[in-house]
Structure formats: C-alpha cells, structure tokens
Amino acid sequence: MKVLDAEGQVQDRATAGGDDDAGAAGDPQRRRESGMSARRRSVLRGLSAGLLAPLGWHAASARAASAGAYPVRPVRLVVPFAPGGATDTLGRLLGRAMEASLAQPVVVENRVGAAGAIGATAVAKSPADGYSVLLGGVGTNIVLAYTQPSLPYDPVRDLMPAAYLCNVDYVLTVAAGSPYRSLDDLLAAARKRPRAVSYMSTGMLGPLHVALEYLSKRAGVSMVHVPYKGESPALADLLEGRIDVAVMTVPFTRPLVQDGRARVLATISAERTASMPEVPTVAELGFPGYAVPIWNGLFVPAGTPVPVVERLHAAAAAATGAPAMRERMVALGVTPTGGTIAGYASFLKAERERWTAMIRDTGLVGG
User: Region labeled Disordered — which residues (predicted)?
Assistant: First the structure.
C-alpha cells in the first residue's frame, strides 16, 4: 500500500501477510495444514466473525479506503477555534461544498483551546483513515511547534498536508470609541505608557501573538497580551474597552465597521486586502518588510493512504475552484490558493524557516 509522508512524498508500506502467503505452495507441511476440512474452516470463520464483529466497522472502512471506495461514512472536519469566528465560517462553507464530491456529509466539529493545539492533537491522534481532517493553519502546523515545547503532537511527524486552501487577511481593530485613530496613535501611547496598552490574539504563543510581539519589537514598545479562544469571545471586551486593540479577520471585522462599532488601523498582510482596499498595511506605516501572511489548509494524520489524501485534495480543489465558492471566499476576506499536495508541502517547509526566524527575533519561548 502507498502512503504519503509529512513532506507529501509517496512511500511504500509493506502489506501484512504477503510473505506467509508466498511460501505456502512449496512447503509440504503447509500443504497438509492447508487441507483442513471445509467444515473446520467454516466453524473457524464463524468464530472469527463473532469475535471480530466489534472491529468490523473500522476494518471495513480501511479496506474501502485502500480500495478507492472512500468515503463510506461521514467525514469529521475539525475546526480548532470557536464557533462564529472566521475559521469556523470558512470550515462550514468548505464542508458543505466538499459534500458534493465526497457524496458523504462533512461534519464540522469545534475543538477549541490552546491556540488551536487541542483540535490539532485530536486529529493527529486519530486513525489514519481519512475520516478525521484538520482545518489547520500557521499556528497549528508551524508556530506552535516552536513556541510550545510540550506540544502533544509534532506537526511534521504526525500530520500531513492534503490541500492548500487560502490566505486570510487579518487587521488591527479598535472600538469605534477608542482614542486611537491610527497605528501611530496606538504605538505612541504604548511607548509613553509601557504595559498599559493591551492587545488580543486567538491564543498564547500562537501566530497572532507572535505577529504582535514582532511588531512591538520593531516599534520599541511593550504591550500586554490577552489571549482568547477565538474572535467571538473577545468581541464584547473590545467594544467595551477592556482591551485596546484586537487582531481579527476581515470577514469578522467588516460588519463591525459597517455598523459603526469598530475601526480598522492596518492590515498585517503583505498587501492591502481587496475587500478593504482603503486600509494600509503595517509595512506602509513605517515598518518596511513587516508582513505576517496567515493561511489555512487541510491536514490528515500521517500515514493516511495516498488514494484517500488525493480524494480529499480533489474534493477541496473542486470546492474552492467553483466560481460561486471563490466569490464567497473573497467576500469573506480570504484569497483562494490551491496547487498540488507536493507544492503545499514545499510551501510548508519554507514557512517553517520563515517563522523560525520571526519567533527567534521576538524572544518568545514556550512553557
């Protein structure tokens, strides 16, 4: 059987029992043993069926997957952040779109906490059969490995890429009543009153935490980090002034701006976002070279059979390639990407190198 390793390369895995079967024809003793009565074989088959019945579902699924019949039951798509946030919205939209290709339900499950590590761990420790899929990203599959030494999974060893989905635009957002009208206002206040200005991210030592600490280092300021389990749980605190600035996605932030409840200072992406072109990048505002692209992709447990990974990849490509779906994604503030599985693996390797340097510059370390 062929499987893909964590770098997207095809490897051969030996099939159990092959050597035993090959040697039977030339061994007289084995020929005698193979001549048992039909009655005895029937009894043994009956006993085996009864003893192994509880395992039949998983065994049948594995056989079906290796035979190309995958999926034969619903697929679980794990979203490692809270319901109502941009990642959750993307996951539900993608899940519904993939159902047409897979001909099975795609059930979204929110496994929240530890900057995405809880959800990623759940998938990493699941059977490698294609029925548990992670909607992963920079944090779960790159950053946490460098900032959290006690991480219960290894993103390279335990997870493998299935599809590169999109890039996501994040913006620095303040409440409409905030005294900070610009990024310069915010940083000037932080410079004047060290540790008095607070910012929100979606998890301790996650990518957004790294992004804001990296900006703080570049600006020579010290701000207080307040981690949340997602965008939605932080909203009330932002609007009521308990935190000063939040790092949030464009799709989550834009309705707040339209309703007059929030204001955007800058985007942390390399370029201005198409859906909010009036918002400048951090790089434009005095920090050349600053860019923290955030992306999402699908990941499965390492060792998942090649046909299963390819089926998932094809379903994701069909979903994100449909014109109507692409329009929905752009409207949400995400840019569809795509590409091959091997190309995604190469991209991930380059991302690991880039984030390693950024984390080193911030001085952040895990516990």
Answer: 1-39
